[in-house]
Design goal:
The structure is a single chain. By secondary structure, the chain is α/β, with parallel strands linked by helices. The protein is built from five helices and six strands, in the order βαββαβαβαβα. It has a six-stranded parallel sheet with strand order 3-2-1-4-5-6, with helices on both faces. The radius of gyration is 16 Å and the shape is globular.
């Protein structure tokens, strides 16, 4: 059975964003990656078959250029929690993107995002949980 092909917009082409863009492109999805700094696109693999847009995603015109109204998924991976939250809210509330995921660094903000119906990934919380698990599983000699 073939997998479904999604139209995915990735906001931010830093370490996480470019890995996601490369992976989803390689998996056959339609990918648009947006970043304020075009130099970040240099990290995309030569096999990346998606589109690259240089611009500020807090500007509605940039999201419309990315055809956000057609997106199945939007992933906000910038290094700024406020930008990720704003873009995620715009995607969800204005353009009715079905699946919106935002990276949030501040664990206190996770609850706010959740209340707004936005799925989050918090590297800080994930790291804490992994360290706690590693300590629990450690053999002390």
């Amino acid at each position: 059975m073939a997998h479904k092909c999604y139209y995915i917009i990735i906001v931010g082409c830093g370490r996480v964003g470019f890995h996601l863009a490369n992976r989803f492109s390689r998996d056959g999805h339609s990918v648009v990656v947006i970043d304020k700094n075009a130099i970040t696109f240099n990290d995309l693999s030569s096999e990346f078959s998606g589109f690259k847009i240089e611009g500020d995603t807090t500007q509605m015109a940039i999201l419309q250029q990315a055809k956000i109204e057609k997106a199945d998924i939007l992933i906000a991976t910038t290094h700024e929690d406020n930008v990720n939250l704003m873009v995620a809210q715009i995607a969800k509330k204005i353009f009715n993107v079905r699946h919106v995921i935002a990276r949030v660094f501040d664990p206190k903000r996770e609850e706010i995002y959740t209340q707004l119906g936005i799925e989050t990934i918090c590297p800080t919380s994930i790291a804490v949980e992994r360290f706690v698990l590693a300590v629990k599983n450690a053999e002390v000699i």
